[in-house]
Amino acid sequence: MVSLKSMFKRKKEDASVRVLRLEEVDSTNSFLLSHHPAEGEKMTVAVADYQTAGRGQGDNKWESERGKNLTLSILLHPVMVPLQRQFLLSMMGGVALKMALANYTDDITLKWPNDVYWKDSKLSGTLIETTIAGGHINNCVFGIGLNVNQTEFHSDAPNPVSLIQILGHEVDRERLLREIIKAFKYCYSLVENGDYTDVAALYHDSLYRKHGFHAYRDKDGEFEAAIVEVEDNGHLILRDHEGAMREYAFKEVRFIS
Length: 257
Fold this sequence. Notes:
The chain has helices at 4-10, 28-33, 87-101, 163-167, 173-192, 196-205, and strands at residues 17-25, 43-51, 70-76, 108-111, 115-118, 121-133, 136-146, 214-218, 221-230, 236-240, 245-248, 254-255. By secondary structure, the protein is α+β, with helices and mostly antiparallel strands. The strands form 2 sheets. A 7-stranded mixed β-sheet has the order 1-2-3-7-6-5-4. β9 (221-230) and β10 (236-240) form a beta hairpin. The longest helix has 20 residues, at 173-192. It is globular.
């Protein structure tokens, strides 16, 4: 399989991207969900210095110190993706973030479904929201919170980490933003071209704890299992020590540190 870095370098620039810079907003996702793109605008990026109501999965909030991190949303229009395969977009977003972050550090993985991890700590989270029209995906917004230059975290999140903590020095947020946009453009081109198998392979190759048996917990208690795959619908397939296959939707199972 071709490496992420080599594919990334081959992608030419695409001029059809609009970047909207916001000093403060309630949520960049909410902002883009009501955005009306201009003709020819394939990708819209809203980046804010501060979100007053940044959202995570479910009822979770995203902690981000003003002006220290990257809080952004990316709007795409993946009308070519079948509804039953929309988890492919989650895979694509995770692969793009890993691609950009791999320029800064090793040990970046994707924790199912789409958190970005450095070793056993969470570096970034993504909230994906879609709108459906005429039986097709009309809009897809990737809301990304990436810990960049924040050194202290005060929420009850169990394992946050930032690039400054990993690298020991501040990171140029503008440069990192450009690299994220470039990676998203490349990965989205794979989706546009129908290279779904390549996107899925890159995602599976990037999975957190993809090798060996690890501890999990579901509604029946703790167990050990190995990752088999993530299906097109986003369900995680695990194999326990007895060889039994276990299938889980999001929130039905969790990793144990």
